[in-house]
Amino acid sequence: MRILYGIQGTGNGHITRARVMASTFRTLGVDVDYVFSGRKEQDYFDMDDFADYRVFRGLSFTSKSGQVDSFKTLKNARPLQLIKDIKGLDLRHYDLVFNDFEPITAWAAKQQNIPVIGMSHQAAFLSDKVPMFGRAFFRRALIRNYAPASVYLGVHWQPYAENIIPPFIATHHHDNPVMVENKVLVYLPFENLNNVVEYLKDFPEREFYCYHPDAKDCSIGNIHLRAPSRVGFLNDLANAGGVIGNAGFELASEALQLGKKLLLKPLGKQFEQGINAQTLLSMGAAHVMSYLNPNAMDDWLQSPQNKKLNFPSDPAPLVEWIRKKQWEKVDKLHKYLWQQVDLEQKLIV
């Protein structure tokens, strides 16, 4: 079986999930090529897991000051280039497209009658059992038309429906995994970096390790700025006493796995992050703020750590399910993977 894996490149969450999948595909000898879209080619980093991957412009959003800029997003869409890339992507040599909310490979496969398995956090929202907190019909229509699939496999923190599986969180060996209580990992890539620094200055008793696309490695008092680095980020996440971030799915999943308390500032006008924040809030797994709120920080700093959720680390059962081509039969996969999540630790909405 030869697979083309299409990955949404906006943000790093989809890429993090793809790294776990790529390692297992490689270990099990599955022939996989990789396509990314959603950001400029020079903005990808730590991509050794994907060998000779291809990059397309695709679709993405433009943000400003912590919220989606709808006008600039539409202005930068380049629909003619998108159509050209979809029509120009030759899939004759592939048996399957495995897709993580990436539109070019999904639409090219639809036009060329190649089956598509759409595995993403977004796909979980297609079930009416998953909390959507309003505008469900419109949002589900958007998901289905953005990256259409033959079979949808959702990824979520709870087993809301039979076609939803838990996230795979890779096991990492960290330089110093012992928690440092006053250390806080900060990842707010959609906020203005200067605004983030000014916000953190009000809390001199904490050591903030702040990763940001515009940062260069340096320290401003107790604020330690860090350029994007997957290895450095994971090491700082492992021993941080808490995490401040936007409400992306993958970082929250990694933090829940480690039992880190979360303070979330979801990206404004981005419905997935808004839903994630509300879901985690209702689970009692995060504090949420709509802006960089000092009072929210004060409350959060006094809060206890989360329970650890032992999400699975090995997607081999998923890869074997893909190989068998019985994609409509997802019940056994669902049951097997959720059995690995300790039911007593599971947080229920």
UniProtKB/TrEMBL annotation:
It comes from the Bacteria. SUPFAM superfamilies: UDP-Glycosyltransferase/glycogen phosphorylase (SSF53756). One of its GO terms (molecular function) is transferase activity. Pfam families: Glyco_trans_1_3. Keywords: Transferase. NCBIfam families: MJ1255. This is Glycosyltransferase. It comes from Pseudoalteromonas lipolytica. The lineage of its organism: Bacteria, Pseudomonadati, Pseudomonadota, Gammaproteobacteria, Alteromonadales.
